[in-house]
Amino acid sequence: MSRGGDERGEQNRADQTPRATQDKSVESRPERTERERVANRRLERAEDMRGAKRLARPTAPEMQMMSVFATLGERYQEDYFREHKLKEEDGWYVTHVDFAWPAERLVIEVYGGPHYKPALDKAGTRQEKDARREANVKRAGWALMVIKDTELTQDRWAGTLERVRKFLDTGRR
Question: Which CATH code for domain 29-170?
Fold first, then answer.
């Protein structure tokens, strides 16, 4: 059974994130100022609160994604974490992600309408923010798969199952 529910303490999740063996981007990153560190800690605390709310109330596409894992079987349901906090090796907060398998450093993000429908993005900046966030996840050494809610429909279910299975299997070899 998944450990993606509320039974785990929020504080412990960051400690469970494995360290990258060699992350070249960490070596080339300039030193962060104290002001940047304070701002990052403040962002982390705010996102911890938002993540706790999202953990308690998954979106419809996230629930559909959990059905994908259930359909794939026990092997794929185990060891994933919902609203997992990603940090870089130096403790720098990156983001929370929808589904993560820390041992394999795999992430699945599920995007509903607000992520790609212009009518639901009043500021018109969502896609740009998502692209930056996705780049940050990859730069931190995690493999990322993005699934849109439109891929979780009955018509596309079989194809999505196979894509997710292949993605998850990449880290299990």
Answer: 3.40.960.10
